[in-house]
């Protein structure tokens, strides 16, 4: 039987498969940690940063769209709300990162000069845990309030316009806090893997990548939900076109941030600052860098230039699937040279960690979505979103 438009988005069978993949991956990761704890720690951090950036990309998308009063994205809002709704689980899944802190930052306990001074004190596990608690509190509060008020609109509660104003005020006022938390989390958990290296644009670079990753995921989920029924007759070619244009915009922004970061450090030519790029431009890491240039920017850039591609849902989803893979390569390229500076060394724990975290997080998000409308019909501008056109 065909699902009615706006019905449930989750299927029990899919949830069970995702949950099984998540449990199996995490168990394999735990077993592998007994043999190679440092590799397991870095594999987990890579997969965790990948999945977390997708959830935070969804939160940024929601807040930006709300803050500017965009109406075209209302038919896609519930998908973003559900992806961001995985943040409570991701909060709990950060605990292994804290437990692996000595494996990720062994130089904090060294007697080397680079381990002394304010850097070591700043990254002390107790202070890092307190900051992480603050980051997650900000992210979870913003995502939970936006989802709660959106669902209250769908429930037919009073004053949907007032609830819409609340969401817009929260989005506009809360974006700086969410962005600052994201930036400092990027400094704490990723940039600090290379002792002594610093980049003021690193948070912007990671943010741009998170948005590219989430918008790519959104193109895939939108197509799947349209074909399964919940979005059939609701999402149109114009919505895909607008989504494709936004994806193209953030792809260019990601490339700009990456180039600006490289250019400034290249011009300064300071050994302390150049260390990060020197490692990633030597050995097999140079091939990964070239893959990012060609695969994360040049190929999708020319593909997404096409108006026709952006108006073909299957083609846009294919581009999204490719960019999702490239986003993982990007995160891997950020994290793994700290463990293997001589060159890339793929490990089965990388796949186990990715399956464990992606599977469990997706199952959690699908499970939370059961029983709720797949479309934000209660929004006062919902009908306007249905009639959106780019032709």
What does this entry look like structurally?
- With 391 residues, the protein is an all-alpha fold.
- Helix content is 74%, strand content 0%.
- The chain contains 17 helices and no strands.
- The chain has helices at 12-35, 37-67, 74-84, 87-92, 95-99, 101-104, 118-122, 125-154, 160-189, 202-228, 237-268, 271-280, 283-304, 307-310, 313-335, 348-369, 382-386.
- Helix 11 runs antiparallel to helix 13.
- The longest helix has 32 residues, at 237-268.
- The chain starts with 11 loop residues before the first helix and ends in a 5-residue tail after the last helix.
- The model is unreliable at 1-10 (pLDDT under 50).
Question: How is this structure best summarized?
Answer:
The protein has 391 residues and is an all-alpha fold. 74% of the residues lie in helices and 0% in strands. The chain is built from 17 helices and no strands.
Task: Using the alpha-carbon principal axes, give the shape.
Answer: globular
Please give the share of residues in helix.
over 70%
The termini sit apart by: 33 Å
Q: Give the biggest sheet.
A: none
How many helical stretches? 17
Would you tell me the structural class of the helices and strands? Answer: mainly alpha
Low-confidence stretches are 1-10
Q: What is the CA-atom radius of gyration, in angstroms?
A: 21 Å
The percentage of residues in β strands lies in under 5%
Order of helices and strands: HHHHHHHHHHHHHHHHH
Q: Average pLDDT, to the nearest integer?
A: 92
What is the β-strand count? 0
